[in-house]
Amino acid sequence: MQKEIVQNSRILIVDDQLENVLLLDRTLRSAGYVHIASITDSRQALTVFTDFQPDLVALDLRMPHVDGYALLKQLRSRVPAGTFVPVLVLTADNSRKAKQEALTLGAKDFLTKPIDVVEALLRIYNLLETRYLHEELRRHSETLEEKVRMRTEE
Fold this sequence. Notes:
By secondary structure, this protein is of the alpha/beta class. 55% of the residues lie in helices and 15% in strands. It contains six helices and five strands, in the order αβαβαβαβαβα. It has a five-stranded parallel sheet with strand order 2-1-3-4-5, with helices on both faces. Strand 1, helix 2 and strand 2 form a beta-alpha-beta unit.
């Protein structure tokens, strides 16, 4: 399952600092991830999110134009009910307030920069595994509901 998750997962990186984007992209690719989209202009995030349909978003908080907090609110409205698309916040702001606000707005995990590469890869994989299991459970539930419906009709 691990290889399947790594090879098939789609990851979107949103950070205004190109160096941070390149570091995370290189780190993910070295771990076997191949479906990675990245942007440095947060104004494009919603369009890329809709077009790319990521399984995970790695999001900076402090960005010009549209900050990570606003993006968290906007992304939450774009994810259909019952769908789990985790957001991992990667930020230099290690304040308790930043962490609390990001998690309250829907982020599923929070890492401070400079990132520990091993920790970042483990957290990304764990979030993706959770998404994979969530989707598997959703499909199973739909199958069971269909069976119940068919038996009820009989």
